[in-house]
Amino acid sequence: MKRIVLSSIVLLLLTGWLSMAVADDISEHAACPLCGMDRAKFAHSRVYIQYESGPSLGTCSIHCAAIRMAVDLDKMPVSIQVGDYQTKKLIDAENAFWVIGGDKPGVMTMRAKWAFEKKADADRFIQSSGAAPASFDDVLEATFADMYKDTKMIREKRKMMREKMKKQHKKE
Asked: How far apart are CA 141 and CA 48, in angstroms?
């Protein structure tokens, strides 16, 4: 009986700690460590990963999260959460209702990948945008499949921005 009570207390403390950490993910990780984007501005696409043995990771998108997950193969996630497209609230990535594609531009990707807490919200988005339903595994597979084109697109956009900045500085 003592073991059950002690286990319950430990579980409650751990659950409380995880929920407090999740509630404060944007202040903990204000900018994406890969691309520098403001995670508050992209709260609808942000990803927050808590690892078994170390610091958490907060990114702007599933694109940036996938890069880090590939690099950090030995880090075991305890929790992967993503911003709900509608509410911007963090939700469990594996239990989310995901959509891929559609006419709404994605974050750090040409082929959008959005998560919804409610199936009805995902279904409405699919109807209005032409996106397709997907699982979290489908989204990760699509993210890795899109990585080359997306990375190339990001580099080209950044090059154009640098050239634009150079022109502006020359005018001043």
From this structure: 19
